[in-house]
Amino acid sequence: MTHSHSPSKLREAAGRNLHERIANTLGLRIVGGVDAPGSALPTEVDLCATLAVSRSALREAFKLLAAKRLIVSRQKVGTLVRPRAEWNMLDPEVLGWHLQAAPTDAFVTGLFEVRRIVEPAAAASAAERRSADDLAAMQTALAAMTRHQHAPAELSAADLQFHQAILNATGNYFLASFGAVIENALVASFRLSWNAARRTPGLSLRQHEDVMEAIRDRRGADASAIMTQLLDSAMDDVRAALARRERGETL
Fold this sequence. Notes:
Elements: H1 7-31, H2 44-51, H3 55-67, E1 71-74, E2 78-81, H4 92-100, H5 105-129, H6 132-147, H7 152-169, H8 173-181, H9 183-196, H10 201-216, H11 220-246
Antiparallel strand pairs: 1-2
Helix pairs in contact: 1-3, 1-4, 4-9, 5-7, 5-10, 5-11, 6-7, 6-10, 7-8, 7-9, 9-11, 10-11
């Protein structure tokens, strides 16, 4: 069975892709500091000329950025970049723009602070509520991490699966969605931490295994404490990786 697309539908799709591309360009500028919080964006006329786009496409892109709380339009003032504290940092695209612009120390610190608030408590909760299927998911992810410890992309994907399995094991839908919401940031931090720890991947793998065993044995306090240690080690590794990147060393 073939599907035909009407010209109007195709135009609509092309228009949507265009204003998403414009939003991506402007989002990267804002997150990267080209347009700083509190400053006004260039005028619509200037942006249309610079980006070679129509005013209607630009305004659709502005709507996307406004929904992510990056910008606000004010009469007689123009379009302003909101204060950073007002940005929707859990929006996948906003997270993605931060990662494309190269994560700063403040970004990494903030991300790990959120993880330290959420994940040790989630590990303790998982120890109380986990099912046999939850444990099997953790074991599968840990086996993949061990198998792929020298393949960064596969290793990071398996690491994400491991942490997601713990969040799922809490039986709390809000916690389960946490990993999906910050997936981009988690994968980026996993890659940085594994790159920094590539000479001693065994320590991190042991920490993951210890968390899983504490959850398996229903030792909630131990699961929480070990998860905290794991996150502290990972943050140190990410900071080391960022420092090497700033010195121009290859990761």
